[in-house]
Hints:
The protein has 382 residues and is an alpha+beta fold. The strands form three sheets. Strands 1-2-3-4 form a four-stranded mixed β-sheet. The protein has a four-stranded mixed β-sheet with strand order 5-6-7-8. A hairpin with a 2-residue loop joins strand 3 and strand 4. Helix 1 packs across helix 2, helix 2 runs antiparallel to helix 3 and helix 5 packs antiparallel against helix 6. The radius of gyration is 26 Å and the shape is globular.
Amino acid sequence: MTRHNIPLGRILGIPIGLDYSWSLIFALLTWSLAAGYYPAEFKNWPPLLYWLMGAVTAIMLFASVLLHELGHSVIALRFKIPVRSITLFIFGGVAQIGAEPPSAAAEFFVAIAGPIVSFALAVFFSVVKPVVAGIEPLWGLAKYLAYINMALVLFNLVPGYPLDGGRVFRAIVWAVTRDMRRATLIAANVGRFFGFVFIFIGVLRIFAGDFSGLWIAFIGWFLDNAANAQVHQLMFQGLLAGHTVSQAMSRRCVAVPPDLTLQQLVDEHILGSGQRCFLVNRGEDTIGLMTLHRIKEVAREEWATTSAAQVMLPLEKLKRISPDAELWTAVQQMDRDGVNQLPVMNDGQVVGMLNREDVLTFLRTLQELGEHNKRMRSPIDE
């Protein structure tokens, strides 16, 4: 969970969180239901009941979205794909899958699981409607949830990446071409196309006086940005392919003794050299890692009496990586573990440090070399 999330607990070991943006859509949806849907369907309710049912329906909608995302997550776990978290936010919900699926079949089943759950919910609430027909609030709730879950099915099956339909489409292209990168690029570009379609339709509706088109255009913008981010990630992955951690890591790791106080560390090393990460060594052996984040967790008035050994991350608890590992694998590991740097270890010894800035610097170097090679290439070479 990030600091932008409100943790709600765990289901099947998966952390569930509520993004702060959810409060906005919850308020808007409650208002829309209380002022629009329920008064139009039921004329004689007291005003308080409209607002109560609006809030209950909004909560039930997001419960349906949570079940949709759990559908993805359960199948992902069946394929041994880690699920980092599920977050409910302004656009609904997202399951943070911790790795790419191992096969096109796995991608297909993980992607289709969510719409299947939503379809099952739509059928369930449709069956419930006649059962509660004599209780207007429950009948109205069941009717709306049946409708909205079916709408979720239809919307998510639009074949535009990163929607579920786009992931199903990617799985099919992947199975045909046997090339996941190519399938992802095709699916992402199709996703951008549908994003532009949503934007175009939304703008037309706005000019026609229907301001609900603003929401449609906003969804289109979101789809385009998400698909575009996937294209850039593919380019990023392609540039890093074939390169190892040892090529990008920093070998200038400053070592400090375990009895050095935090105040000394700040005054003598951080402010003087701009270093942000330190190895804590006892003799020739590295016993831990110190970072700015660890220092900031200690009250400033305690810096003079707190040693590095008391605050460091012990070596045995550190996420680490080999110098021969693929650089892209290291990036994925940092993202998956939620860390900004990894000690690079060989035969039990720290031989360097890899952080996100090192990767970005290495990437810029690769891009500059690529541009230089293009400028130097002669017409004969082409």
